[in-house]
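Me: Here is a favour to ask of a fellow structure person. Could you put it straight underneath, so I can go through it closely?

Assistant:
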Amino acid sequence: MHRHRTRGQSLGEAQIIQRARNGDRAAARALYETHVDRVFRLAFRMTGDEDQARDATQDAFVRAFQRLDQFRGDAAFGTWLHTIAVSVVMNEVRKRNGRTRREVEIDPEFHADSAMSRGDSALRTRIREAVDELPEIYRTVFVMYDMEGFSHAEIGESLGVAEGTSKARLSRARERLRAGLANAWEEWKSNGAEHA
């Protein structure tokens, strides 16, 4: 019986996954090389720490390869792998009390960031802090959607929530960021930065 494949899983990748399941190290390496950059980028943006991100990336792949027999192909392999990576990162962040400083760039389409283009480092710092201050459920969706470009369907699959829940969390994250940054924006303008 032919299994339905999602857009993200090609016939070639399905064959590579099967070979990796059968112990083919070259196939496992090919899967790793295909997905490692995006997993690392996600981990780095969620933790803000290169060493933590490396560790989380390694842990995510170890877990994924240990659980490869559990992958059914109902979702894209990348989505399944990112579900594992998000879980690993969130567990690590919780262990460190969730107070990791992030060095990330905010998506240029975010409403409050016209200030970012002006190059004000104090305001950039405040934006990073505002992202840090978001509750984890909102921060995760914000990072995945606005920074990493995941779709709401992929986020829902990764986090085990409905697509509508992902959209609602993103909306709340953006509202909180706008509210949290309103004072910083007004201070920045009133301090004459717009005339600099």
Summary: The longest helix spans residues 163-190. The two ends are 67 Å apart (CA to CA).
